[in-house]
Amino acid sequence: MESTAASGPPATAEGGGPGTTTRAPASIALDLVKRFLTLREGSIIVVTILLGAYFAASNGTFFTTANFKTLLPYFAPFAILGAGEVFLMINGEIDLSIGGVYLFAPFLFYQLNNGGFPLVPSLIVAIIACMLVGVANGVLTAVLGVTSFVTTLGMLFSLEGLTLIISHAAPVLTPGAQISSHTVNVAHIVNGHKIFLPQTVNHIGTFAEIFGGGTYSELIWALVVVAILQVVLVWTRWGRYTVAVGSNRLGAAEAGVRVRLILIRNFVLCSTLAGVVGVLEAVRATSVQPDTAGANSILFDGISAAVIGGTLLQGGSGTVVGALIGALFLGILHDGLVLQGVNANYLDFYLGLAILLAMVVNTYVGRVRRGSGVG
Amino acid sequence: MVAPASASDDVLQVEHMAKRFGPVIALRDINLHLRKGEVLGLLGDNGAGKSTLIKIICGFQKQDGGQMLLHGEPYEPRSVDQARSLGIDVVYQDLALIDELSVYHNLFLRRERVYEPVPLLDNRAMRREARRVLDEIGIHLPRLDVPVARLSGGQRQAIAVARALISNADILLLDEPLAAMGAKEGAQILDLVARLKAEGRVSIVMILHNYTQVLIAADRVNLIQDGVITLDKPTAETSIEELNDIVVNEYRRAREELARAAAAGAG
Fold first, then answer.
1. Which of A152, A368, A375, B116 is the Cys-Cys partner for A97 at CB 3.0 to 4.6 Å?
2. CB-based burial of residue B88 (10 Å sphere; 0-12 exposed, 13-18 middle, 19+ buried)?
3. Which chain B residues are within 8 Å of A316, Cβ to Cβ?
């Protein structure tokens, strides 16, 4: 009798016990599956693959390159926002102001550029302003002791309001993102004759190509940001201290971790990424609306990506790669439902149910992983 | 009473230390000294100020009044890190362990080994070093990469003690190092303290509740009552009975005070 294997998660967690060599291959396979599922990202990876498979099976256009390109904007921005949010959520804090920063950054960028600054310096100053928002959030929360929910909610409204003020509630064209079109004559062979026909060629500048305008620009940004931050979280002192602050704030301080510095740094990380995403999206769309409702929805998608990916709101535990997969899950769900022709009104309803379901699975799997039983 | 020791063999002196938290006076006027290589047992009722004193010495809190001398030099730690760099390390009563981090990440918290020039954590080196230190002090854990949340109370306590030892401090502050331990594990830690004492390199301040353990482990005992040190004796010159009497008297005094206050309130 494999009573130890049957007893489940605690045995899995202990690893190679004395009975390992005598196990049947099926039992080993089961063990591997269990191990995978108890990975922090395991459950959401499975759910995302199942979701993708469902849409691929039921809709011919889902599994096409064209559709993947459509899907990218529904995924990459949330992966980046979620990645920053993961750090704060591991701290046991939350940043709601990313919606405001996301909206504010491109308008500040526009104003600076409009005021005579070149593209790149305008962008740099706009991003520095976003970092200062993070410093303010961090100081209010970590030094003055205002709950981060309240601090960043106030900051969210302030920045959205400020954006309406500086933009006079009017949309602007994103600097550096404009498409230039010119006509060239292209050679065609028709019935053995070489003829030239005029054709319009759209061209975007290198700046736009890098900052969101290129087809894969946002995807590359997302992958690079997630890869770097996952390494930072797992293999650097900053990452370990982030976990320490979220897991046992007093203990971390007693051990010498500079708790306030870690918190402020993570607030800065979060709002910097929000500013970057704001600019990327503004460049991609070539113009930007002072749409506060849209910004709020982006904010919640970013947080959803982190939460669905397996990061706990109560802190102490989380994964950046999870946020990427959480964002992919949201993107596939959104894109797939649209392809299925689901009424737009149902979209949020399904999205909400999916988040609830994902959280139930995550919580359950998390409890099993920690070996505290399933009861 | 023991005459004050000559400054020459004192590694640490605390003079007129005072600390209050709002209206609560934690330390009134603490005078204490620690000789090189000795184990000083600190006794006192709950709330007498023992842990506060430890937290000030280790740099976690700042005193309101008084001063400290480390090896005869003025000592004003601005942080736990700074105290540690000056050779003072501590095991807190609450252990200050991070449940979600692995055993070796806890052991090396704030002293992580990193690669050069990119400061990524050198987990292998930390694991190896952790294994060596734990073996040395006789703590046997099957795996060091599990989160400490999975460990028993005694094992956690042992990790906290090992963390203080890993830094090669020459002054160790132990706040109830046996609190969560069974008799066998407790004996292991006391053995370790005896071994450190025999090596003569480390001086130890140890808060304990159990008089028997104090008499076994410490060279000298200080009793804190109400923010002041009321007894300072070599353990050889005192006994469980004497310590008991003092504490029983304290309780009697406290009861009388309460009764007086009640009578005054009634009248």
1. A152
2. buried
3. 99-100
Q: If you count them, how many residues does chain A have?
A: 375
ipTM of the complex: 0.89
| Per-residue pLDDT, A17 | 40
Residue B112 makes CB contacts below 8 A (sequence gap 6+) with A237, A240, B105, B121, B122, B126
Phi, psi of A203 (to 5 degrees): -135, 135
CB contact under 8 A, B80 and A231: no
Three-state SS for A11-61 is: HHHHCCCCCHHHCCHHHHHHHHHHHHHHCCCHHHHHHHHHHHHHHHHHCCC
Instruction: Residue B123: list chain A partners with CB under 8 A.
Output: 235
- Cβ separation of A248 and B112 shorter than 8 Å? no
What distance in Å separates residue A37's CA from the closest CA in chain B?
Answer: 18
The two three-digit tokens of residue A165, written as one number: 């003020």
Q: How far is B64 from chain A (nearest CA, A)?
A: 19
The owner of tokens 């690079």 is A224
Give the pLDDT score at A343: 86
Nearest C-alpha in B relative to A257: B110
The per-residue pLDDT for range B165-200, each reduced to its tens digit, is 888 899 999 999 887 777 777 888 888 888 888 888
How many other C-beta atoms lie within 10 A of the C-beta of residue A322? 29
Q: Which of B59, B64, B3 is nearest to B28 (CA)?
A: B64
Q: According to the model, what pLDDT value does residue B181 have?
A: 77
| pLDDT for the residue A371 | 56
pLDDT in tens, A147-178: 999 999 999 999 999 999 999 999 999 999 88
Torsion angles phi and psi, residue A200, rounded to 5: -85, 130
B77 Cβ partners below 8 Å, 6+ apart? Answer: B57, B58, B59, B83, B86, B88
- pLDDT winner (highest mean) among A41-50, A358-367, B66-75, B173-182: B66-75
Collect all residues of chain B within an 8 Å Cβ-Cβ radius of residue A371. Answer: 150
Q: Which chain B residues in 50-109 lie under 8 Å from chain A, judged by CB atoms?
A: 60, 79-81, 84, 90, 92, 94-101, 105, 109
Q: Pairing between strand B220-225 and B228-234?
A: antiparallel
Interchain CB distance below 8 Å, B100 and A251: no
Q: Delimit the domains of chain B by residue range.
A: 7-266
The pTM for the full model equals: 0.87
Q: What stretches of chain A adopt beta strand conformation (E)? A: 172-173, 180-190, 193-203, 287-288
As a whole-number percent, the residues of chain A with pLDDT over 90 amount to 58
- The whole-angstrom separation of Cα B177 and Cα A130 is 47
Strands lying side by side in the sheet with B228-234: B73-74, B65-70, B10-21, B24-35, B228-234, B220-225, B39-44, B203-207, B171-175, B88-91
Question: Can you give the pLDDT at residue A38?
Answer: 65
Tell me how crowded residue A216 is: count the other CB atoms within 10 A of its CB.
13
Integer angstrom CA distances of residue B32 from B16, B47, B50, B177, B233: 9, 18, 12, 20, 12
The answer to whether B121 and B101 are in contact (CB under 8 A) is no
Which CATH homologous superfamily contains domain B7-266?
A: P-loop containing nucleotide triphosphate hydrolases (3.40.50.300)
| Complete domains list, chain A, with CATH | 3-16+23-35 (no CATH), 44-177+205-362 (1.10.3470)
Contact B253, B233 (CB under 8 A): no
Token duo for residue A240:
């370990």
